[in-house]
Amino acid sequence: MTVMFRIERDVLAEAVAWTARSLPARPSVPVLAGMRLEVTEEQRLKLSGFDYEVSAEVTLELHTGEPGVVLVSGKLLAEITRALPAQPVDLVVDGAKAVVTCGSARFTLLTMPVEDYPSLPAMPPAAGRVGSDVFASAVGQVAVAAGRDDTLPMLTGVRMEIEGDVVTLAATDRYRLAVRELKWQPGQPDFSAVAMIPGKTLADTAKALGATGAEVEIALSSAGGTGEGMIGFSSAGRRTTTRLLDPEFPKYRSLLPTEFSARAELSTGPFVEAVKRVALVAERNTPVRLAFRNGEVVLEAGSGDEAQAVEVLPVDYDGEEMNIAFNHQFLLEGLGAIDSDVARLQMTTSTKPAILTGGKPVEDDGGAPDYRYLIMPIRLSG
Length: 382
Prior knowledge:
The chain is an alpha+beta fold. The chain has helices at 9-20, 74-83, 132-143, 199-210, 268-279, 328-337, and strands spanning 2-7, 34-39, 44-50, 54-61, 64-65, 68-73, 89-94, 97-102, 105-110, 126-131, 157-163, 166-172, 176-183, 185-186, 192-198, 215-219, 230-235, 238-243, 262-267, 288-293, 296-301, 309-314, 316-318, 322-326, 342-347, 354-358, 371-375. 40% of the residues are buried.
């Protein structure tokens, strides 16, 4: 028997869970369901997963380890490590089996052929850094608007545009559009690149790396550079890569209105709760209707012979009276993304796109908000 390593249970469980994110639910070949564990000569444990689209790798420091490589079922290892007691974990390789021992618990796993496992792709060149919390927040705000219809792949991604020290993220599913600008630290001040990143992969990665509390390094080549067609992210001993989508994307900047005829500001929390309550009687595709007038907004859903709901909220409103309707789920997701105690809804007419942002003090109104959520109204009959 070869003792591959001993490590604390919490450290191992977290690393295994993070790596298992990249494993395919239905692998095209059985070996892709495996997680590769390697103990290096430098007494480091590397856990990796790869499905030819997304790769993930975690590097951990070891006190006790014997160099070697083993491949086991990643999902099963994740379930086992999550359930182990809070004691040191030993992993021993015995022929075609790997034995995991923790306290009085003992699990025997069949190993898979390491030689059949694909090599992880190399990281593209490092392009710059951004705080993990800022990155996770920004991606979460934008990915909510990415499409989920795989027959329209360009709408399932998040577009990342980099110009110097500004990163712009954008996503749309044709019914709403989310745009977020953030500052980062480019490796070169004139760095410029555009990448279309699978939305779900980016959201999962940003959320996972956001928990590290460290900076995230973004690895991406400029146009025509090495590593084209791939983007990488790394932070605190974790790295992940993903293939990019076709860069085709709607010319979204022209969709963002710059002039409005009405502005409404509401406390976000009460607005969210009211929309949720009124939406209880809304069928899946029926809208929540908002009637704005000076000092109040009336929320309504349901009509005729159906169940109906009405609620009135105070509002700081500037403009002519307006009746407008939205898909309640899209409205709620936008309200959840603005990250502000005050929601500002700017409108032109009841049939043109509205812009939802976080409210800012009047004295700050000179600059455009760093996050904008465009939402298409639903045309009211009659």
